[in-house]
Amino acid sequence: MGQKERSAAKISASVACTIVFVLILSASAFICFKKRKPSKKQPGLAFHNAARGKCMIFDLPTLQEATENFSEENKLGEGGFGTVYKGTLPDEQEVAVKRLSQTSREGLNQLHNEVQVLAQLQHIKLVRLLGYCSHQNEVMLVYEFVKNGCLHNFLFDERKGRKLNWNLRYNIIVGIAKGILYLHEDSSIRIIHRDLKSNNILLDENMNPKIADFGLARLLGGGHTQTKTANVAGTYGYMAPEYAIFGNVSPKIDIFSFGVLILEIVTRRKNNSSDDYNNTVNLLSDVYNCWTKDMTLQIVDKSLNVYSKSEVLRCIHIGLLCIQEDPDDRPNISSVVLMLTRDRVKLQPPRQPAFFFARDSSSVFEHARHGNYIYDKSDVIVEDNFSVNEVTNTDPYPR
Ligand SMILES: *[C@@H]1O[C@H](CO)[C@@H](O)[C@H](O)[C@H]1NC(C)=O
Ligand SMILES: *[C@@H]1O[C@H](CO)[C@@H](O)[C@H](O)[C@H]1NC(C)=O
Ligand SMILES: *[C@@H]1O[C@H](CO)[C@@H](O)[C@H](O)[C@H]1NC(C)=O
Ligand SMILES: *[C@@H]1O[C@H](CO)[C@@H](O)[C@H](O)[C@H]1NC(C)=O
Ligand SMILES: *[C@@H]1O[C@H](CO)[C@@H](O)[C@H](O)[C@H]1NC(C)=O
Ligand SMILES: *[C@@H]1O[C@H](CO)[C@@H](O)[C@H](O)[C@H]1NC(C)=O
Question: Stretch 276-301: mean pLDDT, rounded?
Fold first, then answer.
């Protein structure tokens, strides 16, 4: 081969190489483009965006299609803030679409920012907000779908309720407490739920609890930082007295509702009547009456036949601490989590709950017990023999 021929071969080889390279490049670009184009339309991306704390904006047709025009069959429930529908997005992802009932014009302007903030609150014990849709005066929030529905339906269904053994219930109680801990203390902004109740606790496929509707009172109630509100958003029966009567908002109103939740979960007691308020008042009084008479276990759900006595008693005790009348007496959520999860934590005796009426007042005062309580893992319940005054100097919640 001559010089000329060699360089010609070199040139043609490099040209061929270049052509092949360009071909590969354009082919891959084409493939990428093809792949990307449809996925841009697919709300499947919604999930990934949401996972990064971004909030998707859905259009109305997508949600109409997903929920089959908000059909009755897809209706999951009706809450204080609107109606919830099950939806399936084009990529098969299941979602829950909440159609808000009351939104004012001014509300809409703020909504975008507020929803962004809520979408950033991500915790395994919170129902994840994926995005929203606003159309004319209507607003819809799109949430992850949680499989087993709400705790209320589970607990008060005769058949399902029996399946909730003590370990599941304890796990639910601790899970809710951890969710509240995140809302109150660990998230970027402090969120006071204001409407904690068994309808707002959803259960996933492993029966782990997830708190729903957090931030909605803030979103729709107007005032953000104010500590008094004219719009009381809670549900009778779960509302702390200072909130129900004066509209005072503080984290302690969630603690109160959590206390009611604990007592509900342990006793599984709910009268079949529309009068939630009186039923709860009765429940709180009854549990406290039993506690002062040292007959606490009598009020525990009869379908719980195997359980750790000390764990159950400890939960009831913590429930009673949470529903005390004076908000300052109620423990904060980090104390609650400690009390629930640590062994040998000293619990102070609860004062009488809000809305209390004694069935038999003489017995209450006669049997009211003093000193601290320790519920040991081995089912041993130790009663401290300190006087109440001495105890105030010791830290009842070791760190
Ligand atoms: C939903 O309703 C609109 C009109 O309200 C109708 O045009 C559309 O076909 C309906 N879609 C389905 C899936 O039913
Ligand atoms: C229902 O309420 C009535 C009256 O308050 C009470 O006597 C009864 O024990 C309650 N039933 C249950 C199952 O709690
Ligand atoms: C509850 O009460 C309603 C009427 O108030 C009745 O229709 C329903 O059957 C009752 N449910 C149970 C489980 O007793
Ligand atoms: C609820 O309690 C109030 C106050 O005690 C009473 O007036 C009302 O009749 C009760 N309602 C029911 C349904 O028991
Ligand atoms: C919660 O209460 C405990 C005990 O009273 C206290 O030591 C702790 O500082 C409180 N935590 C917060 C965040 O207020
Ligand atoms: C307190 O201690 C006394 C003896 O010091 C004992 O007799 C009594 O039972 C104790 N009380 C409790 C509640 O443990």
Answer: 83
The size of the chain, in residues, is 399
Which CATH number belongs to the domain containing residue 107 in this structure?
A: 3.30.200.20
Residues 156 and 120 in one domain: no
Q: To the nearest whole number, what is the mean pLDDT of the chain?
A: 79
> Are 126 and 172 contained in the same domain?
no
Q: Which of 284, 352, 356, 344 is nearest to 314 (CA)?
A: 344
Confidence (pTM): 0.76
Which of 64, 67, 72, 85, when mutated, tests ligand 1's pocket best, judged by the most ligand atoms within 8 Å of its CB? 64
Q: Which atom of ligand 1 is the closest one to the Cα of 65?
A: 13
385 CA → ligand 6 middle, Å: 6
Task: Report d(CA 319, CA 119) in Å as an integer.
Answer: 30
Shared-domain flag, residues 155 and 265: yes
Give the atom of ligand 4 at the shortest distance from the alpha carbon of 277.
1
Ligand 6 centroid – CA 322 distance (Å): 27
Whether residue 260 is found in the same domain as residue 312: yes
Q: Which residues line ligand 6 (CB under 6 A)?
A: 383, 385
- Whether 167 is covered by a domain: the verdict is yes
Of 195-199, 268-272, 291-295, 365-369, which gets the smallest average pLDDT? Answer: 365-369
Query: 59 catalytic, yes or no?
Result: no
Minimum-distance ligand 1 atom for the alpha carbon of 68: 13
User: Domain range for residue 303?
Assistant: 151-379
For the stretch 169-221, pLDDT in tens is 999 999 999 999 999 999 888 899 988 999 899 999 999 999 998 887 777 65
Bridge partners (DSSP) of residue 94 are 88
